[in-house]
Design brief:
Elements: H1 24-37, H2 40-43, H3 49-53, H4 65-88, H5 101-112, H6 141-152, H7 154-182, H8 190-202, H9 208-211, H10 215-237, H11 248-257, H12 259-263, H13 265-268, H14 276-280, H15 287-313, H16 336-367, E1 377-378, E2 387-388, H17 390-407, H18 410-438, H19 444-466, H20 474-503, H21 508-513, E3 521-530, H22 539-547, E4 550-563, E5 574-578, E6 586-594, H23 605-617, H24 628-633, E7 635-638, E8 649-653, E9 671-675, H25 684-699, E10 701-711, H26 718-734, E11 749-757
Parallel strand pairs: 3-4, 3-10, 4-6, 10-11
Antiparallel strand pairs: 1-2, 5-6, 5-7, 8-9
Helix pairs in contact: 1-10, 1-15, 4-11, 4-15, 5-7, 5-18, 7-16, 7-17, 7-18, 7-20, 8-17, 10-15, 10-16, 18-19, 18-20, 20-26, 23-25
Length: 758
């Protein structure tokens, strides 16, 4: 009944716990931890920024205008994008503590009702995390007009979803390119870089928690090294290099270098790689801890490192080869090899954070029905965000090896990662401008100012990266396009399948016309039918009883659905209702999960207990209600058994289970008792219904799953037939079964096959 993997105490989790109320000691501890997880990528950017910038577009001359101009660009880019945009603005747009592109999209879906998830309910809007405290939807002026426009036009909703997917995909692809670039530099040849990459991906299945204690010390040591070397170079070679921080040097740089300087911006862009991780990994830390770590440790260390390199290069103008502009040439010769060892460790830490972030992105896409189901292994029993996806891990490894062997040129790899990074930032800027209007209820002028200010800066870098499309920048575009097609095909097929279920569901009148026995033989036990529908009777039930006119005395229509929030509290887990009159013994149970929730602890005894709690809490007036349609629409919010302080508990008599040798699969019976609290509010009819439910549970549970084959209906266009009959069918056959399906006992599971013509 339970997935046999390490599981965490999910039911004890509560969003009422917030880090904001913790002491400064806790905040500083989180800031320390974030250095190893969030900033490993950003802190290693000095390894390749100057080298990529001076690759071939511009030359380092004795006037120092080029090196001063690059330093000025680096300083203001680090100040405006990571510090101003992310630390002071974007981090505030968290989705109940969660960050990333999907967090912004989730906020917009809730405040403008533009979600493409087809099974939304009004009851979902009452969830604890659905409405963020202090934030209200825009209800006046241009904000209201914009929200109405988005809600009315499906095309705009699909464009918004596509934009979010593009940002997500390029975020993952940029991670691939950055992993390669970090292990591809002067002292590491291609074979050795490939060995390091294989070893890095091999370690993933152990989980980040096993080596996590090494992350922060490595990054802190690295930041101390580059800042100390920077200070040494500044005082030893050029104490006046600080003058280059003036924006005037950017103007002089572009005036002198012109087109070459504009093209070199693709190398300067690499100084902010990893900035998106501050927002994407927000769920593991807190806003304040990430702000403290960047503002007081990472930002000053990076500025000192870049100033130190510029100070050294301003006194060394003889260029013997490409590596003369690299990072290690500015390191004192006696310290070069120790610094190299620390740099490799820091690069591995940064790569680890990128790979783990990619796993989280794929999990979110799967939860929102935008990516085929994959195997998700939770590597930590305490932190739900630490996951491992074997298929994605080995795919990333093969792609990284292909890029490393195929390019062999760090310049081309830098071009590829630069385009991917700036695309993610542009998407974040666009979505953030909508959040300012629709979620923060600010003026459209403020949103447009944010869009034009940061969008113009990022568009400048985007154009410089795009001009190098044929020199490596095509790689992230090609990979993202392939993954986007996969996501589109899967999402389209999933939506068409759900639409077929809705259009072919059985009406309640059909059920009522069958009478209390449903026109079939009712046998002892509980029949649990899994369905994606949140209302009505699934066609799979009528298909089943037509071919086999017998069913269990208690029928449960069970639905597991995701809602556009990070987490759902255990107290709000289930929606339970009744279908038809009480005598029919037909119930609907909807289990709700957030896109960051874990489905490892699927225990179907909980469903029986939630139904029992629903029966106990149901008022006696419900039995007098004659409107069955209204009864179906009424659903009660029921928590998991661990949240029932005074409700019904369940007790299994394991000692009564008898095991004996049999020739065919047989499930041993359990004696089940519901511990009902003494309460005069439970009437005689409810107690009789609870008694029947207990006897049915003791007799056993049967699980009915629909196994559907989706085919394009006759007369469909050629493109639709290709997408549905070949694309979606291939992905469906090669994707993993739902995680909860593996917890169904095989001896009690029955699959009912149907062909869906969509």
């Amino acid at each position: 009944m339970i997935l046999r993997r390490p599981v965490m105490d999910i039911e004890s989790w509560s969003p009422d716990y917030t880090i904001k109320k913790e002491s400064w000691r806790t905040v500083l501890a989180l800031a320390y931890q974030s250095l190893g997880v969030v900033y490993g990528d950003l802190s290693t950017s000095p390894l390749y920024v100057y080298k990529s910038t001076f690759a071939e577009d511009i030359q380092h001359s004795e006037s120092n205008e080029e090196i001063y101009g690059v330093l000025s660009f680096v300083f203001w880019t680090l100040t405006l994008i990571p510090l101003l945009k992310y630390v002071f603005i974007v981090l505030r747009a968290d989705d109940n503590g969660e960050g990333g592109t999907f967090a912004l999209y989730s906020l917009l879906c809730r405040h403008a009702r533009i979600s493409t998830l087809p099974n939304g309910q009004l009851a979902d809007e009452d969830l604890y995390e659905y409405k963020k405290e202090g934030i209200a939807s825009s209800s006046r002026g241009l904000g209201l007009r914009l929200r109405s426009t988005l809600e009315k036009h499906r095309v705009l909703q699909r464009i918004l979803l596509t934009l979010a997917l593009i940002g997500t995909l390029f975020s993952a692809v940029s991670g691939l390119e950055l992993v390669v670039s970090k292990h591809h530099h002067q002292y590491i040849e291609v074979p050795l870089a490939c060995i390091i990459l294989v070893f890095l991906f091999y370690l993933q299945h152990y989980g980040t928690h096993r080596i996590g204690f090494l992350f922060a010390p490595v990054v802190i040591t690295w930041l101390f090294c580059i800042s100390a070397i920077g200070v040494y170079n500044i005082f030893h070679w050029n104490p006046h290099v600080y003058q280059a921080l003036s924006p005037y040097y950017m103007y002089k740089f572009l005036k002198k270098t012109q087109r070459g300087g504009w093209m070199s911006l693709g190398g300067i862009l690499l100084c902010i790689t990893g900035s998106e991780a501050m927002f994407a990994d927000l769920g593991h830390f807190s806003q304040l801890s990430i702000k403290i770590a960047f503002s007081f440790v990472v930002y000053p260390s990076l500025i000192l490192a870049y100033m130190g390199q510029a100070a050294y290069l301003s006194k060394h103008h003889i260029i013997e080869n490409d590596y003369q502009i690299g990072f290690y040439v500015s390191v004192p010769e006696k310290l070069r090899w120790p610094v190299l060892a620390i740099a490799i460790l820091a690069a591995v830490v940064g790569s680890q954070a990128i790979i783990t972030g990619t796993f989280s992105i794929i999990k979110q896409c799967c939860a929102l029905g935008c990516f085929p189901r994959v195997k998700i292994v939770h590597t930590s029993s305490k932190i739900c965000g630490q996951i491992y996806i074997p298929e994605i891990n080995w795919t990333l490894m093969l792609l990284c090896l292909a890029v490393t062997i195929g390019f062999r040129n760090a310049k081309h790899i830098s071009n590829a990662s630069g385009l991917a990074v700036i695309t993610v930032m542009l998407v974040t800027t666009c979505l953030m401008s909508l959040v300012i209007v629709l979620c923060w209820n600010r003026s459209v002028v403020l949103a447009l100012s944010f869009l034009f200010f940061f969008g113009s800066i990022e568009a400048l870098y985007f154009s410089a990266s795009l001009i190098k499309f044929l020199e490596g920048a095509w790689v992230p575009v090609a990979l993202s396009f392939i993954f986007l097609i996969i996501m589109f095909v899967w999402h389209y097929g999933t939506m068409k399948k759900y639409e077929f279920d809705v259009q072919n569901k059985v009406s309640l009148n059909w059920l009522l016309s069958l009478g209390p026995n449903l026109g079939i033989v009712r046998v002892r036990g509980i029949g649990l039918i899994h369905t994606d529908l949140i209302s009505g009777i699934p066609a799979i039930f009528s298909h089943f009883v037509t071919n086999l006119p017998a069913f269990h005395q208690v029928l449960v229509l069970f639905c597991i659905k995701y809602v556009p929030v990070p987490h759902v509290k255990p107290e709000e887990r289930f929606l339970v209702g009744r279908i038809g009159p009480k005598g029919y013994r037909v119930y609907r149970c909807i289990a709700r999960y957030g896109y960051h929730d874990v489905l490892l602890d699927v225990k179907f005894e909980k469903d029986c207990c939630s139904i029992a709690e629903f029966i106990r809490s149901e008022g006696p007036e419900s039995s007098r209600s004659s409107n069955n349609t209204e009864n179906e629409a009424k659903m009660a919010v029921i928590g998991t058994p661990s949240t029932h302080a005074r409700g019904i508990k369940m007790w299994d008599d394991e000692d009564s289970t008898e095991l004996k040798e049999v020739n065919s699969p047989e499930v041993p019976r359990k004696r089940v008792r519901f511990l009902v609290p003494e309460s005069p509010q439970i009437d005689r009819e409810a107690r009789a219904e609870l008694q029947e439910l207990m006897e049915a549970r003791e007799a056993g549970m049967a699980f009915i799953l629909g196994h559907c084959y989706v085919k394009a209906k006759t007369g469909s266009s050629l493109i639709k037939r290709i997408v549905v009959n070949f694309g979606y069918d291939f992905l469906r056959r090669n994707s993993r079964e739902p995680s909860y399906a593996s917890s169904f006992p095989r001896a009690s599971t029955l699959e009912v096959g149907m062909i869906y013509h969509v």
